[in-house]
Amino acid sequence: MPIKHSSFDRFLLKLNGFFLALAVLVVVIPLLYIVVASFMDPSVLLSRGLSFRVSDWTLDGYQKILSNPAMIRGFGNAVLYSSSFALITVTVSIFAGYALSDDRLKGRGWFMTLFLITLFFGGGLVPTYLLVKNLGLLDTIWAVIIPGAVNVWNIILSRTFFKGIPRELREAADVDGASEASIFFRIVLPLSKPIIFVLILYAFVGQWNSYFDAMIYLDNPNLHPLQLVLRSILIQNQVDPGMISDQLAMAEMKRLSEIIKYAAIVISSLPLVIMYPFFQKYFEKGVMVGSLK
Amino acid sequence: MQNLMNTTQGKSALVHSGKPNWMKYLRKHSFLYLLLAPALILTLIFKYGPMYGAIIAFKDFSPIKGILGSEWVGFKHFDKFLSSPNFEVIFMNTLKLSLFGLILSFPVPILLALMLNQVRRAGVKKNIQLFLYAPNFISVVVIVGMLFIFLSPTGPINQMFSWMTGEPIMFMSRPEYFRWIYILSDIWTGAGWSSIIYVAALANVDPELHDAANLDGANLLQRIRNIDLPTIRPIMAIVFILAAGGIMSIGFEKAYLMQTAMNLPTSEIIPTYVYKIGLQSGDYAYSAAVGLFNSVINVVLLVTVNFIVKKLNEGDGLY
């Protein structure tokens, strides 16, 4: 039976719709501004603001950013780091999650506590840095990938998921003579494809968007991932001189440095924009991450 | 088949050899331990290793002598930090930034979820969610980059309001604006995504509850207060405990990027300070002490807040 709304309720619902629309606008307008501005002649943008006249538009920003070797290298590095990180962290975490989901594993409680403690207490920045340094990992891809590879939330999440797979399924396979390994790889893992996919997406995006580990562990600019390159362009205002040819005047350089920023933001976000629809399908899975105690 | 063999092997071992039980057990379930091993080893090295390394906070650490070889100095570094003129400023900056952040950010996702829950058409609701979740996937570098663009003296915000203010406001270099910019942009980035957990909980509310309440003459606000809010209260408690317990572990990444030489009086917080003295100036032991001080406060906070919420919430704590 549908709810009968009083006029007061109907007023509230209208108000509700209005404020939600407002929230959407607050989110969309800044993003739209960046996209439109990345195509705009900088001098027009500065004097008149956004314009939708084709004659005011230009591809200069994209041309400069795509011919910037640091940007291209950063993009490549980010793809490499993010995919290797996603692969390693998800493998390690779901393996552990599966082991901990099995009642026959003695000492599960202790192992779980060992993992959980690290969520709330850590050695701190400097001791971690010294460890990575002493292991000889500085200026290698491993410094970015390995120290954060164990994700306790993913362990908890996958453990809960594996516990939900009916025991009978495993036992039936057991009776059929399947080894522990083939039960895991042939039966359990194929059933877990959706959750594995979500975890990989999250891990990829997390690594793609991070800059901190790369900043402290990688001195060699050739190893810098995209976010560090973006940082120098967007925040430290260091436009690579190679990006703008020398004969251009300072004013031109300043003019271009702004449009380069917009284009850099758009380009760097492309992979995520492409992945976003896939995320949408799995938003509800993300809820599981949050709802775990 | 193989399993069968394992069992027979196990039985014969039981009879014939004096091998201890745990070895037999390990052999039988070796696959599970094999799966656990990578995570366990990496955690021991990269999480527990630094906890051991943190003892340099109590030493005069020299990289040549190593962690064990360096001399003990007790609480010297802690005393130095607590008595330094910077201490009060940095400590209060950290506390204020996250406390104000918690107070302002905590209600927003709840409000959004309650509002989204009233949208009857599923397609419309989904599209709104799609937009509201999006900023969560933008990197912190880009977020801060956008802040610098939008708030620059010649940026769109100043362009819009220049007729009111006369001259441009230097948002990013004025200490009094730092916290506002930090917190409001945090809400812009994360509020939508944080609402997801409440939205899911509200979707599980039995519609008949609302129908019945409606029949009894309850209006929308009364139904929200008496049906929706109690549904999400346990989740609110958990989210609040985690946020409050993490008050001193506020992230380094965004604050560091937002720092300019001019806004340091409010933007210098413990994590950025630890980074600067430790990795930029190389004062490892002192930096480790400041970091450890912060971690300990964190744990104490988490335990305290969990205790209080548990008391208030009739046992719905985190653990």
Automatic annotation (TrEMBL), chain A:
InterPro entries: MetI-like (IPR000515), MetI-like_sf (IPR035906). It is a multi-pass membrane protein. GO terms for biological process: transmembrane transport. GO terms for cellular component: plasma membrane. The chain crosses the membrane at residues 12-36, 78-98, 110-129, 141-162, 183-205, 259-279. It comes from the Bacteria. Its main location: membrane. It is found in: Cell membrane. The keyword Membrane applies. Pfam families: BPD_transp_1. Keywords: Cell membrane, Membrane, Transmembrane, Transmembrane helix, Transport. Residues 75-278 form the ABC transmembrane type-1 domain. Belongs to the binding-protein-dependent transport system permease family. This is Carbohydrate ABC transporter permease. It comes from Paenibacillus faecis.
